[in-house]
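Prompt: I keep going back and forth on a fold encoding question. Comparing notes only helps if you start from a blank page. Show me how you would write down a chain together with its backbone fold. Please set it down just below, with no commentary around it:
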Amino acid sequence: MRLFLRDEKLRMGILNTEQGNDVQSLICTHDIIHNNPRIIVCYELYKEFSKLARFGILRHEAAHMALHGSLEFRIFRIPEECRHTATIKGLDMPTLDTALNYLAAAVMDIEATKFLIKHEYIDCQAQFALELLEPSDKDKETWKGIKLNRPAKFLFLTALLRPILFVQPILDLPRSKKFSAERQIMLNGKIERFVEYLENTEQNKLVQVANIIADSLTEDTHNNVDSTLIHALALA
């Protein structure tokens, strides 16, 4: 799917052909290139999920279209405060730009999840989360190779924030018939296993930053992205 979208953009003369490399971006995405909203699914990945999770995937992407379907949600700027902090921490601007893209996607994910939870699409989102939160062997090997490289380590950890933030609105739900204590325990366990290959310090810091970000969200996506980048720099 990534190659298809890249080639399509090139044919249309769009030079920015970057696509997310995380699993969420590769399963399903949306765009507005043709002035009509569309959702694009990689069926090979999509079919590996259960029926309920597949509903969750499509509804999640539809929520993105409803909330973030306009061009204003394709342009985010780095706050000056973050530029200063990044310089102190030895991060260059390309690294910060990449982190901004990762974190903007993470913010829009948590907003989409909150939107769906508000409209009581709970089961499908919880099931999607349960099946999504699986650490890959590639991630484990990558971590071993980059954990002593500050910029690479920072980008790796910011990328992990996306699936963790995606789950937060579900975990914040009160226990009920729609979201049982058992399901909550399962999701918490999934998050623990998702990051268990990291050192304890990184695990704790990552979860702590995710909680701070989730608690600080407002109704303004751009403000949310700004504050998320500010908080995420604690991972550098």
About this structure: Residues 2-235 form one domain. Residues 57 and 124 are 8 Å apart (CA to CA). Strands lie at 28-31, 38-41.
